[in-house]
Amino acid sequence: MTRYPFLELSVETPMLQLRAATDEMLDELSDVVRAGKASADPAPYDDPMSFYEADPDLRVAKWLQAIWRGRGVLNAQSWRLFFVVVADDEPIGMQDVIGVNFTTFGTVTTFSWVSADHRRRGIGHEMRSAALHLAFDGLAATEASSEAFVDIHGSNAISRGLGYEPNGVEWATRHGKPALMNRWRLARDTWATQRRDNIQLRGVEPCRTLLSRL
């Protein structure tokens, strides 16, 4: 192996690509973060969150630092794969796939955002579909989970539309204030009933092999 396989991994759908978040890809996306287009109202993220920083340069710096830290903490049990979402050759957001106690339970969760310029076009649904295909088809996950504040209607609708089942609620903070989150759960068998045949994975096998050894 002469390259790091997690930086060569990609997922492609008819609408978009998830490309591994190399430094070059992050640099292309940083203007969206600097412009504040990764955030929304009501606020979708729990604390702490770099996107809540008012200073644009500090916002970008903390966002990049979090991704770089996440790259370094990666083993078979706990991992986070970062992707830049590209549509029409333009970087427009991020989609992360996160292994949680993966060797024990086979569970993944997801995190995503899309630029304010590209919302309400079905991109969030397509991003999540791509992430689930990677998790279940590529990495043999057994279940996927998701969380969203109860007033983040778009994210909750995506989970519902993709077959997730309600899995309770929990409290979290955003901007230091308590807020209630919906929890969702999608079993592999449920995903399999709606498995798509037009999503392509590239570079998965070297990642799977290396993960099993870390």
UniProtKB/TrEMBL annotation:
Transmembrane segments: none
Segments forming a coiled coil: none
GO molecular function: acyltransferase activity, transferring groups other than amino-acyl groups
Alphabetical list of InterPro entries matching this protein: Acyl_CoA_acyltransferase, GNAT_dom
Entry-linked Pfam families: Acetyltransf_1 (PF00583)
Signal peptide positions on this chain: none
UniProt domain N-acetyltransferase: residue ranges: 16-187
Name of the protein in its database record: N-acetyltransferase domain-containing protein
